[in-house]
Amino acid sequence: MSELNALHDLLKGLGDEVVRSGERIVGRRNADWSGIPAVPPLAVLYPRTTREVSQALSICHAHNQPVAVQGGLSGLAGGGCTQAGDIALSLERMNTIEDIDEIAATMTVQAGVTLQTVQERAHEAGMMFPLDLGARGSCTIGGNLGSNAGGNRVIKYGMARAQVLDLEAVLADGRIVGGVRKMVKNNAGFDLRNLLIGSEGTLGVITRAVLQLQARPGSVATAWCGLADFDRVTALLRLTRNRLATGISAFEVMWPGYYEYVLANVDGLRAPLSARHGCYVLLESVGGDPARHQADFEKVLQDCLEAGIIEDAVVAASDSDAREFWNVRDAPTAFPILMPRLIAFDISFSIADMGRVSQDCVARLGARWPGSTVLVYGHLGDGNLHVIVDIVGASDETVLQVEAMVYGLVEEYAGSVSAEHGIGLKKRGVLGHTRSRADLEAMRAIKLALDPRDILNRGKIFPDELLTRRMND
User: Fold this and answer.
1) Range of the domain at 279
2) What number of helices (H) and strands (E) belong to the chain?
3) pTM of the predicted model, to two decimals?
4) Under the phi-then-psi rule, with left for phi > 0, alpha for psi from -120 to 50, and beta for the rest, what region is 461?
């Protein structure tokens, strides 16, 4: 009855252009890319303004009506999936770029704008928005901020939170917090911006944001390097960080298992180097002066070759060459077709531990499941490791056993169960591998303070034991 009352009041207050139910939502995708099944929602809300988001949440709060907050539904942790009894809140109609300030180098956007649209508009204005990930065409800024997305350029520009000056959000009871100020320095009390970024829609619904743009590079230098072992990979990281005046914009490491698998199985790839090496690095640096930057880049690589840090390297002579290098690194987009039952992990560790973690992971999984495919690659500069496991004929129980082994390794090496993508529904049970009991209690206290009726993304992030305790408080 409460659900019907909530739907009645939503329709009365917002109208059927915003509130859609029944046949008007049949066939709509209600799940993200995590593979977690979703239950069709009672209704889908399509607000056009922050004020309509506020009004919708105020009504849902009054009726204790759960709300699933959704962006582009490109997440991998189940954060956008609708569950039984949910009303979905989609921000796809809030897709306006409100302002580009070329003096302050900022862009003010609504949360439903896609990442690719932001990138293109920044480029047109002679600048760049450096956040970048494969789902750029469908993921939205609200979702990027809600999950604190990272992507390929974190080593130079930081995660999503580092690229936002201010944001506006609506709390569970409809109150609007934050704003769209363009100051870099703002120490006026608690930083609600960074509290909401990464909270996966559990504390509030991000509706608008001021994004920090960067100067568009005048030069991009790219190389593919072959190295004997992981110790030399970290030596290359240290040296290039210290020697390249403009720094590193990408430092992608791939182990031989990954490199050989994608070259053998993904169409259209060309091997950058013919000989086999113990590790491979895709190195990128951006600069302002094309001639000087390229010369400095090649001089650093030559010094690394002479010092024995690199065994071999090839420098991209054109944008096309660079794209071919990146195609090898971006080959995982083909994995769901090649390995329909793949088990994927996006985890992080101290950079110093990544070599040992990789070896242990491959060895333990191979010993337990002989003949399995285990591929390891990642963004070395920010400690982000991707592990792909494929076991032919794997049962649901096998998947759980693989997850237990890999997440156990994360706990053993004091890593994080989620480098990107968040916790959502998928990783609630292993959040304690990364966060202490005190951490979890503090998170729970914040959730109760901002969403005391637990209507926003109910059941996500928090482990079951904390959820049960919350219901009994």
Assistant:
1) 219-326
2) 15, 18
3) 0.91
4) left
